[in-house]
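Kindly inspect what follows.
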Amino acid sequence: MRWLLTILVALVAGFAGAAGWSYSGLGDSRTRDYLLANPQVLPEAIALLQQQEQQGRIGPLRAQLEQPFSGAVLGNPQGAVTLVAFSDYACGFCRRSLDDVKALIAANPDLKVVMREYPILSPASADAARMALAAAQQGRYAAFHDAMFRLGPPSEAGIAAAAREAGLDMARAQAAIRNGAIDQALQANGAMAAQLGINGTPAWIAGDQLLSGAVGQQALAEAVQTARDGNPGQGAAS
């Protein structure tokens, strides 16, 4: 318990002040008294600690996160502000978020949505993810992405139907899947997710924020705007 109190004091009063209390021998009683008198600081301090931990995980990966697999982008490929999405075609919450992302793109012409295929729910979702990246190489990612979600949970027949609807050259797509680069990209996505503590879909990263689940258009819009505000020179949302 003492280590938690020390951390909370460090967040509320500053690390220097917390260290001073600890070395003076007054840390335990004064920390306890302060927290009992001001219990509202506990969730605030814990939220701040979690935010700092997120920033520490995202920062070293930012360049890799925001560099998409060739063509696996929604919105403006040259956009000034980036939203990263980890997604699985077998995920109902990802399907539910599809319209939120479309609305966000429509409202933000400077938004680049980097899609990270993260197929963790079924072998069929991994097959769908491979075909999605093969579609990306042909400039047909968005068409396949929409069709795959609309046609329901991934299956061999559904993947083939989505590929046909997206207008893929199937011989070229199958060759791309066989050459190993797509599987390497999926493994890299999994490694990044593990480093970030992502264990479900959808997951979203905008700036220093990581959001989990079908959080809705408003929460995504706020995260994108915060990321934009943190990067001077970017345009405002329309």
About this structure: The CA atoms of residues 88 and 157 lie 17 Å apart. The chain has two domains: 2-59, 63-229.
